[in-house]
Write the structure tokens for this entry.
Amino acid sequence: MIHYLREKNPDLPLYAVTDPTFASFGRVLELDTAAILAVAKAIDNPTEGSSYLPQVDAFEALPVAAEIQERFFGTMPTQVGYCWGYSHQLNGAEWHTSSEVNIAVTDLVLLLGHVWDLKEGEIDASAFTAFYVPAGTVIEVYATSLHFCPCQVAEGGFGCVVALPAGTNTPLEQPTEDPLLFRRNKWIVAHRDNPALIARGVVVGISGENTEIHY
């Protein structure tokens, strides 16, 4: 698949998450994901666009959720949610004060950047790197990595289990003076060509061509 995607995107450097280039963005983890993948694959795709649930009860009822909490979040309260649907462009970038664990339910591509390349809330799309994540792969995305909705690599869309500290990506409980803090433990900037995010009040912070994954 990665060779096929490289042919379809000849001007975009595309790396596997097993490539050393991924080392500053995250790492590949070992985890038995059979049970959670089976549950995720039974969830219907949205009609259009992408959806995100911070917590999915069916995921959190599985033993693997407790294992994720203990092994990768040091026993801190953790939520296991789901991001799925249709997306093929960069569109925006978010970051947290903690790592997140991703389980690729389908093959997908992540467009990742570094928080240190974000200067006064602005970054060019060319600063992001594309990584191919095969279905079933588990990765840790570091807190210093800018990321957003995964990109699909097939007509059927994408699916990605997302584990984070409990409360992340939920509505703010009180007003904040930080214009980039959009949800609890979620800072975000929009690409200038993404009217949907901008309409929701996300600050424009990404310039340059809105990277697109062709498949």
About this structure: Helices lie at 2-8, 34-41, 57-60, 63-72, 195-199. The chain is about 15% helix and 35% strand. The chain has one domain: 2-168. The longest strand covers residues 78-85.
